[in-house]
Design a protein that fits this description.
Layout: H1 3-12, H2 19-30, H3 37-47, H4 53-65, E1 70-72, E2 80-82, E3 88-93, E4 99-103, E5 126-129, H5 132-140
Parallel strand pairs: 3-5
Antiparallel strand pairs: 1-2, 3-4
Helix pairs in contact: 2-3, 2-4, 3-4
This protein binds zinc ion (ZN) (2 copies).
Length: 141
């Protein structure tokens, strides 16, 4: 996504394009290893030290609410963020907490009727286990 498309996606979502918000989005698009909010703040702050932690976190929250950024909840660890436009599933490593993308395929939704009156937006999977690095480390010892 280039600068123009980022600005357009903000406009489409009714978000004002502030330099700080832009920096958060640009970093997330360029960084594909699912950073935590703290990592995003550090990266944005390196480029523009005027950006406060609160501003960065608020911008992040706005982007998640607008649907431009996805929050990947990892139990017991800080949430990770993801701005990859393409739909995908996630693989979370039990040992190092690494979050990796798994190519999208359609998942059959829940049995009809099991959701009651709830409205389903999407159905995605989280795979759990050992990432490539941790799996090979285990094999070697
Ligand atoms: Zn791992
Ligand atoms: Zn992802």
């Amino acid at each position: 996504m280039d600068a123009e498309s980022i600005k357009r996606s903000f406009e489409d979502s009714g978000l004002r394009c502030t330099p700080q918000r832009y920096a958060v989005m640009a970093f997330l698009i360029e960084c594909n290893r699912h950073p935590t909010a703290a990592e995003i703040f550090e990266a944005v702050n390196r480029v523009d030290p005027r950006s406060s932690r609160a501003t960065t976190y608020n911008n992040l929250r706005d982007l998640v609410q607008a649907g431009l950024v996805r929050e990947v909840a990892v139990e017991g660890r800080a949430a990770r963020f993801d701005a990859r436009g393409m739909r995908h599933h996630h693989f979370i490593c039990d040992r190092c907490g690494n979050v990796e993308d798994v190519r999208w395929y359609r998942v059959p939704g829940p049995a009809s009727g099991s959701l009651g009156k709830r409205v389903l937006r999407e159905c995605e999977l989280i795979f759990r286990g050992l990432c490539t690095k941790c799996a090979s480390r285990r094999a070697s010892c």
